[in-house]
Amino acid sequence: MKQSAGKKQLRVTIASIILLIACVQALFAQERAGWKWLSPTEAAFPVIEGRAWQTGLVGPYDRLPARAKETVRPEVCNCRRTVLAST
Question: Which of 7, 45, 56, 77 has a CA between 20 and 30 Å from the CA of residue 33?
Fold first, then answer.
């Protein structure tokens, strides 16, 4: 009796592996679409979230312009390039 239960388990395991291989093959067998990657720094419109100024920036991912360094607190100025985590 135990021997037939072991064989049944083996058949289920083999069938599961075959099904998994078939699903993975079907997933990756699809024709890839022609993706076009765009750089947010080269966009004609503002795409970087949280940035109000589009000009006067030192780096492409700055949130504040360079002229803000003289008017904002040092804590704010030091985190002008920090990525803000959304909660």
Answer: 45
